[in-house]
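Teaching assistant here, posting this on the class forum so everyone can see the example we discussed in section. The complex has three components, and the goal was to see what a joint structure prediction looks like when all of them are supplied at once.
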Amino acid sequence: MTATPTITENLRAFQGLKTDLFHKDFLLTWEHPEEEIRAIVTLADTLKQLHKAGHSFRSFDTGLAISIFRDNSTRTRFSFASAANAMGLGLSDLDEQKSQVAHGETVRETANMISFLTEVIGIRDDMFLGEGHTYMKEVGDALTDGTQRGVLHRRPSIVNLQCDIDHPTQSLADLAWLRQHFGSLENLKGKKIAMTWAYSPSYGKPLSVPQGIIGLMSRFGMDVRLAHPEGYGLISDVVDLAGKQAAKSGGKFTVTNSMEEAFAGADIVYPKSWAPYQVMERRTEMLKVSDKEGLRELEKECLANNAKHANWECTRRMMDLTADKKALYMHCLPADITDVSCKAGEVSAEVFEQYRIPTYQEAAYKPFIISALMFLTRLKDPGAKLEQIVNRAQALHL
Amino acid sequence: MTATPTITENLRAFQGLKTDLFHKDFLLTWEHPEEEIRAIVTLADTLKQLHKAGHSFRSFDTGLAISIFRDNSTRTRFSFASAANAMGLGLSDLDEQKSQVAHGETVRETANMISFLTEVIGIRDDMFLGEGHTYMKEVGDALTDGTQRGVLHRRPSIVNLQCDIDHPTQSLADLAWLRQHFGSLENLKGKKIAMTWAYSPSYGKPLSVPQGIIGLMSRFGMDVRLAHPEGYGLISDVVDLAGKQAAKSGGKFTVTNSMEEAFAGADIVYPKSWAPYQVMERRTEMLKVSDKEGLRELEKECLANNAKHANWECTRRMMDLTADKKALYMHCLPADITDVSCKAGEVSAEVFEQYRIPTYQEAAYKPFIISALMFLTRLKDPGAKLEQIVNRAQALHL
Amino acid sequence: MTATPTITENLRAFQGLKTDLFHKDFLLTWEHPEEEIRAIVTLADTLKQLHKAGHSFRSFDTGLAISIFRDNSTRTRFSFASAANAMGLGLSDLDEQKSQVAHGETVRETANMISFLTEVIGIRDDMFLGEGHTYMKEVGDALTDGTQRGVLHRRPSIVNLQCDIDHPTQSLADLAWLRQHFGSLENLKGKKIAMTWAYSPSYGKPLSVPQGIIGLMSRFGMDVRLAHPEGYGLISDVVDLAGKQAAKSGGKFTVTNSMEEAFAGADIVYPKSWAPYQVMERRTEMLKVSDKEGLRELEKECLANNAKHANWECTRRMMDLTADKKALYMHCLPADITDVSCKAGEVSAEVFEQYRIPTYQEAAYKPFIISALMFLTRLKDPGAKLEQIVNRAQALHL
C-alpha cells in the first residue's frame, strides 16, 4: 500500500477535474465521463479525510434528502442517512405503503409533490429486471418537467442507490477503496480483477453489483475478468460495454466459465452470487402476476441449478491461485460465509476472516461517495466550496 | 395574472398585520381574525419567494416537530417534514402502533411525555366525525395544563393537518395560490368560486376540504357556491357560518343541487368528492364497534348512491359553462381522473391535463403555509425575525 | 423543597467533578464511580435550566444518533430523539425487520456498517433475561475492534436505553428529580425510599427499573427498602450489590415481603409491578423456541399468582403509613391505575392523581439525562464546552 494523497493534494487534484453534475441525476456510471468519475472518488476521499480529522463538511443550512427503498437495506440506508446528515440535509423516507407512488399519472404527480423543498432523492429499486432504471428515469422526467414549468424552484437530483442495471454508489466506493489500497487510480492500470459468480444457497440476487463492477473497472486500464457458470450471464449490453471500455482504456476484458481461470494471477477477486439474467426475467414476469406456484417452481429449479456449482467458492485453495497467493478480496457485504451464515456459501470462513477488515474499509467509502454525489449535484461551484471547507478546517488545526 | 408583490413589499405588508398566535394552536381558520389569515398567506408567500431565491429562513437551532398521522398521507406528510426542516426543527413521527396515545388518562399523559423539547405537534385525524377536532383540543388542554403546572418549559403549538371539520393547511394554501393567481386578496372580491361535489368510485372521503373552502373563502368577499346532490350535505354549523361570513365580507354564499348552476359563470371551480355527512356519522358508529358487515352494506349502499350522480364530472362541457369558458380548476390532489386513475371520476382526463400544472402550483404553497404557521406560533416577534431574514438574504445578493 | 442551584452554581459544581466517559459506553450505573454519577445529574440539571431559559446547548454540527428499539416505547423513544436533536445529531432508527442485526458474525458486521459517521447508539433490549446487556457488550466490542483496526474514525458510544439488568436513563432521571425535589444529593442521606412490587393485571414486566433503582439509590446514603411478595425476587447479583453499596455509603438496604413494612415512615415510595426473576427465565426459554402453548400456560399461572397479591396497591391507606403521610410517589410511567387504565392495578386513582404532575416532572429529566450522557461520552472537554455554552447564553441575557 502506497502513501495516499493528503487533503490538500486531494483538493488540488479535485479542482483540476471538470464536472457537469449540477442539478443532474446520477444513475449509471458509464453515462459520465471518466474525468467526472475521478472527481467523485477524489472528492469522496477528501471528505473522508476531513471526517477522520474531525472536521465537518456540512454544506447546507436546510433542505430534504428523500429516500425511496423498494427493498430491504441496512448499509445503503445508513450510508444515505449519514451522507444526508453530513451535508446538512434532513432525511425523509418515502414509505410507499403509506403513499401513492405507482405508475403513470401518479409517478409524475408524486415526484413533484415530495420535491418542493427537496435537494436529493435516493432510490433503490433493484427487484424487477427492466424496471428500476426505467422508474428512476420517469421520476427524473417528472422533476425536469416540474422545474421547467415553474412548479419546483430547483430540480432535485436523483441518486441511484441500486437499480436493475447498476449499483453506482457501491462500484464507486469499491473504486475509491482500490485507489486507496493501490495508492492511485493510475496504479490500477494492468491490475487483474476477477469479478466472479460464487455459490449461494439463496437465489434471485440482483445483477447490479457485477454489472456495476465490470462497467466501471473496465475504464481504468484494468484486466477485468468476468467468470460465471454457463447460463449465469449478465445483461448483454453491459457486457458489450465493458469490452469496449476496456479496449479504449488500454485494459482487457474477458469472460470465462472457469473461476480458476479468472483467479489465476489476479490482484483482486470479487466472488459474489447472482441470479442468471434469464431467471430474473422469468421471475419478474411471475412477480408481476403474483404467480406463487411458478415462483416456487422457479426457486426449486434455480437452487438445484446453483447446487451444481457449489464448488464456486472462494477458498484458500482458490486464493492460492492469485498473484503471490494474496489477491485483495472484495465483497459488497453481507457475504454468504460457509459455516458462518450458511452451510456452504460464497467464501470460506478462513478467507473471509482474513479479509474481513478490508471489506469493512471498502464499505466505509460508501457514505462519502454518496456525500460526494450530493456535493457535486447540488453545489454550483464545488471546487470553491471544498476549498472553503478545507481552509476553515486548516485554520482550526488540521 | 397580475404582478405579485416582491419580498420587500410582502415584508412590509406582513409587518403591518397584527397576529396573536404565539404559543397557540391553529385548528380552524374561522377561529382566527381575517387580519391573521392575511398575515399567514403573506408570510407564506414571502417564505416561498425566499426559497425560490435560494435563501434559508431557518429560525431554530434545535427543537422537535412531531407529527401524528392517523391516516395515510403523502403530500401533507412531506409538506410538514419540509416545513419542519426549513424552520430548523427535527422531525419525529409518533407511530401510535408503537405507543399509547389513546383516550382519557393517556392522551393527557402522552401529550406531555412527547413535549419536553417540542415546538410543534402536527396532527391529522380525519376519519371519524366528531372526533378529530375533539382529540386535538384534548391534546391542547393537556399541553396547557402541563405548561401551567411547570412540567413543560414552553407550550408546544398544535397545527391541524386535517380533522373532521377543517383542513386549514389545505384551504390556506388554496387561498395563497388564489392570491398569487389573481394578484392580491383584494382582487378576490366578487370572484365566483364553485365548491362542488363530484363523482368518485370510492366512498368515505372526508368533508374537511369542502368545509375548509367554504369556511375560508366566504371571508374574502367572494361569491361562494356550494353544490352537491341531495343528501350529500356538509356539517350544518359550517354551512351556516359560511353564509354569515359571506354576508359580513360583502360576498355571497349559495347552496344548490346543480353542478351546472354552480359552474355557470364561475371564475374558479373546485369539484371534489366527499361522503354525505349522515353517512360519515353512521360509518363512525360502525367503525367504533368494528361492525364489518354493516360497513360492507354501507359501502355498497353508498357506491350505489354515488353512481346515481356519475354525471357530476368536471368535463369540457362543464368548463364551457364557466366565465370565458376558462375558470381556474382547483383540487387538493390526488384527483380521481376518468380513464386515468379510474374508469369514471371527478374530472375528465382532458380538463385535468389542462390544469395539471396549476394544481401542482396550488400544492406548492402547502409547505410554506405550514412554515408560516410554525413561524407565527413559535416566534415572539415574527415581524422582526422576518426582517432579519430578509436583510440577511438581501445582504447576500437577493 | 429547597432552592435548587443556579446555572452558574451547577456549572462550577460540574467542573469540579472528574469524568472519564469520552468515547465510552454507558450500560450500568454501578460500573461508574459516584463522582461520575454526580457529574451526570449536575450536567443534566444545567442543560434543563438552559432549555428552560430558552438557550440551545447544541454541541454538534452534524453526526448521527442511532436508536435500536427491540420493544415498543414512547417516552424513551422521544427522550432519545429529543436529546439527539438538542445536541445537534441526526436521528436514524435501525428497524431490525428491515436489516440483519442478529447474532455472531452479523452483530459484529452491522455494528460497524451503521457507525461510519455515528456518534451515539441507543439500545433498548429488555425482553430476554441474560440477553440485553450481553448484546450491548457484543456491539461495544465490535465498535472497539472496528476503531482499533482503522475502520471507524471514532468509536461511537452506546447508551443503554433499558436492558435486562439496568435502566440507567430512568434511574438517573429519577435521581436528578430527587436532587431537585430535596435540594441536593447530600440531602438524600438518610431518606427512606420504598421500591416495592405492586399488583398489575399484566405480567412479564421487566426487572430493570427496580434493579436500576436499588442499584443506584443505595449509593447515596439512603435507606433503601426493597419489598415484594415471596417468589418475586430480582437478580441476586444486583440485590447483593445494593447491600454492599448501601453499607459503603452509610445508608441501609433491606428486603422485605411486606409492602406495609417498606412504606412505614418512607420519604419516597416507588410501587411498580415486575415479573419474578424465575418466571422471566422460563419465559425467555419459551420465547427462544416459540413455545406458544408453554407461554399461554405460563401467563395463566403468573396472572393467577399475581392475583394473590392484588392487595399490593398504593392506596391512600398505604400512603398514610409514610412519613407525615405524604411520601413522594414515583413511577417510570405509564402506571396501571385502578379504575382508570385497568380494573385493579398498581396505584389508586386518587393517589395517582395527587402525584400525577410530580411523575411528569420526574419524566421531564430523561431527555436531559440522555443529553448529558451524549455530552460526556462525545466531547473531549465537557467542562470547557459547558462553560462556553453558559457564557454564550449569559451574553444573550440569561
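For the discussion questions: The radius of gyration of chain B is 21 Å. Chain B has 15 helices and nine strands. Think about how each of these relates to the inputs above.
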